[in-house]
Recover the amino acids of this structure.
């Protein structure tokens, strides 16, 4: 079990939402500081809160297994632990002489509290913890207004973000060039499998950095026309890297480098989407109350009717509105939903069914493979008109018009609602109009 040099002071790197060996800021710094051992912890308490059809557990497992295999190939290993995170990390101190614990920052409120506690626990043993920005290009309070306040309007944030990027660039951290600094380790036991804990294997995207690179590569030829194609859910023309950015199987810097390597309408539009992700991350960090409340607190007590029967119909894709039902069925079957349809389904829930956006947000959180608290919350609040930079409350997506515009031949609807596939291209958007 022990490192071959277990009495030598060691750097410990803790993998979390950064499941890759390449361009990993925290790992790069750890490897630059000396010999490294790396660990990943399956947090028992967190797993216990998840439903067994959660699509993300298998994705994480595949990604962790890939890192383990890659490290074994160079004579090291990934130490995979299961239990209470704090206890498991502290237990490593009984086997290894750890000098510094390194990790990449996580900006979710609960993670910030956990990390502060772990830092304190390790300080009690006189072990320093070092944290790094890796998840976003700019984080926390790096981008502020002239009044030194966090932005709440996307367009202004984006302008400042672009200026800062032009000034500072987007540097990679080539951790992949330092892998010889991993400690040689005997193969480590790893008993955890999602199946053994009851988690189902869904037909979702496969985890691991290799697959993430493949997804980015597949998208490269689609980038220049992304602005023209991204809104059509029947086409396969977005990147599908949301989950890779969520779990760090792809570096955000690599995505931004791809976007800035071209200068066309497609690449500029895609870069704007990546900036939305940074924007919502800083909203969550600076206004953590949004987790439970409306960003615009005057909208906290909207008179939703919250009809539970309608909510169940929405969840199951049985509202009778084809584009909404197709979207919800795509989500339930694959763990993914096209962005345009996410907007249609969210708007429909809040503004047609008059159901609280938090109900929809929670359902998406259970089902989405790329679920990310900051992006999910920010987008739901945007759709519900309660958020920062909200669309005005009187802008309501008409599901029929959206369907005709973005799925004109009903291809997407036919794929997920086969019982409507016999309808012609006009009627399929609104079957109640059929003769
Ligand atoms: C109601 C609702 C809920 C959403 N929940 C999530 C979520 O939980 N996690 C999530 O990553 N995205 C969420 N989004 C944003 C968006 O739908 C997804 O990021 C996108 O569909 C993922 O597909 P893709 O990787 O092919 O994206 P692409 O179109 O290829 O975009 C590239 C990347 O840019 C980022 N991005 C794109 N659009 C947005 C956006 N509107 N806000 C923030 N980042 C964006 C994502 O990281 C995405 O992977 C939500 C949108 C809506 C309307």
């Amino acid at each position: 079990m022990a490192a071959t040099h277990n009495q030598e002071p060691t750097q410990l790197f803790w993998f979390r939402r950064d499941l890759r060996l390449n361009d990993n800021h925290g790992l790069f710094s750890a490897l630059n500081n000396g010999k490294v051992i790396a660990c990943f912890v399956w947090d028992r308490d967190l797993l216990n809160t998840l439903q067994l059809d959660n699509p993300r557990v298998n994705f994480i497992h595949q990604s962790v297994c890939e890192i383990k295999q890659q490290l074994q190939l160079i004579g090291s290993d990934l130490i995979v632990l299961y239990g209470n995170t704090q206890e498991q990390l502290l237990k490593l101190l009984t086997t290894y002489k750890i000098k510094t614990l390194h990790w990449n920052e996580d900006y979710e409120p609960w993670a910030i509290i956990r990390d502060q506690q772990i830092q304190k626990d390790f300080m009690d043993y006189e072990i320093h913890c070092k944290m790094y920005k890796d998840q976003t290009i700019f984080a926390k309070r790096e981008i502020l207004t002239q009044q030194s306040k966090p932005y709440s309007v996307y367009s202004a944030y984006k302008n400042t973000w672009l200026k800062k990027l032009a000034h500072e660039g987007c540097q990679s951290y080539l951790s992949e060039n330092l892998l010889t600094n991993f400690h040689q380790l005997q193969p480590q036991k790893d008993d955890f499998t999602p199946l053994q804990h009851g988690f189902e294997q869904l037909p979702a995207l496969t985890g691991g950095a290799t697959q993430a690179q493949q997804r980015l590569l597949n998208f490269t030829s689609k980038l220049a026309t992304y602005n023209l194609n991204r809104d059509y859910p029947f086409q396969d023309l977005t990147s599908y890297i949301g989950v890779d950015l969520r779990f760090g199987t792809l570096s955000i810097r690599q995505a931004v480098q791809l976007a800035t390597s071209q200068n066309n309408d497609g690449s500029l539009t895609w870069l704007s989407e990546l900036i939305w992700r940074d924007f919502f991350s800083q909203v969550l960090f600076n206004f953590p109350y949004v987790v439970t409340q409306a960003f615009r607190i005057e909208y906290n007590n909207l008179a939703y009717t919250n009809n539970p029967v309608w909510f169940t119909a929405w969840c199951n894709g049985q509202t009778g509105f084809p584009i909404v039902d197709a979207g919800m069925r795509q989500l339930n079957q694959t763990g993914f939903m096209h962005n345009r349809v996410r907007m249609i389904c969210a708007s429909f829930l809040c503004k047609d069914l008059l159901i609280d956006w938090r109900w929809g947000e929670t359902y998406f959180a259970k089902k989405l493979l790329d679920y990310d608290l900051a992006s999910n919350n920010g987008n739901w609040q945007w759709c519900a008109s309660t958020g920062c930079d909200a669309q005005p409350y009187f802008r309501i997506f008409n599901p029929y018009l959206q369907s005709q515009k973005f799925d004109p031949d009903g291809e997407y609807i036919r794929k997920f609602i086969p019982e409507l596939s016999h309808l012609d291209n006009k009627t399929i958007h609104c079957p109640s109009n059929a003769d």
